[in-house]
Amino acid sequence: SWTTGNVIEEQVTAIREQVGDKRAICGLSGGVDSAVAAALVQKAIGSQLTCVYVDHGLMRKGETEQVEKDFVAATGVQLKVVDAEERFLKALAGVSDPEEKRKIIGREFIRVFEQAQAEIIADEGPAVEFLVQGTLYPDVVESGGGTGTANIKSHHNVGGLPDDLEFQLIEPLRKLFKDEVRMVGQELGLPEEIVQRQPFPGPGLGIRIVGEVTKDRLDLLREADAIAREELTAAGLDRDIWQCPVVLLADVRSVGVQGDGRTYGHPIVLRPVSSEDAMTADWSRLPYDVLAKISTRITNEVSDVNRVVLDVTSKPPGTIEWE
Ligand code: XMP
């Protein structure tokens, strides 16, 4: 019968057999799937696994620290963190178009990740032949069920490496649904903040700033987002909502009256939605007192924000994210 204990035991045995005395690498995104996959593989092969975390500077408040400190403390995993904030901000400078932003973030991400990968491969030790991925059952079904190897083109001149690296994939979550992955993560002792984390897009806060992405705007949005998350958690609403993007309308200005006088600041949008699979969604009917608390705190505590608005659009026609 299905228990998290059985799943873990089965996978640990299978992974040990698959990897032998070789090495594996795994990219951590801060999300549940890659974290649980990494923790499972770590349990199986310990220091033969190295994880890579690219800090693109577009994460929410506290999330990078959770990976760097809490996840490492809980698993003992060997982690290589690449601080690439400056590089991403530079690449995003002057760009407002959502698709353009996504392309840039995706491209930079691959470059930084591959560079880190090449450095790990160049380290002393057995050959790195495996790549861990947090593929879930729904992803397998959606993509037609293929598996096996990943071809990773290396664009770097790291001495002695072939241009075209081929990895075998380790996908320990291939048979699991999201709620099962969360249970396995819990059983493995991962921090609650990671196991229960709501979906967060790969391009991060970069696609929650309508307008150009700058460090100041990211810091501002991080504060507003942290307040919204804090109040939703305090109200016990985390399980009722699918996710709640918090969006900064950086290209819009609104007039307000704050403290001693007139302000000319920016609106923040709350986008709480309920959904089963993110394909369709409805806007969440959050209690007015919770919305009021979030609004009061954001306008009081986040400078340059003088207005909080609620998105009451279902999907379709609106997507969950604003960009
Ligand atoms: P939309 O905005 O398309 O979002 O209704 C559906 C779900 O997907 C997430 N999302 C992304 N996730 N990379 C990701 O990993 C992306 O580029 C991306 N765009 C949207 C979104 O947060 C929601 O859960």
Automatic annotation (TrEMBL):
Enzyme class, UniProt record, top EC level: ligase
Binding site for ATP: 29-35
GMPS ATP-PPase domain span: 2-197
Keywords: ATP-binding, Glutamine amidotransferase, GMP biosynthesis, Ligase, Nucleotide-binding, Purine biosynthesis
EC number: 6.3.5.2
Reactions it catalyzes: XMP + L-glutamine + ATP + H2O = GMP + L-glutamate + AMP + diphosphate + 2 H(+)
Superkingdom classification of source: Bacteria
Pathway assigned in UniProt: Purine metabolism; GMP biosynthesis; GMP from XMP (L-Gln route): step 1/1
Protein task: Catalyzes the synthesis of GMP from XMP.
Protein's name according to its UniProt entry: GMP synthase [glutamine-hydrolyzing]
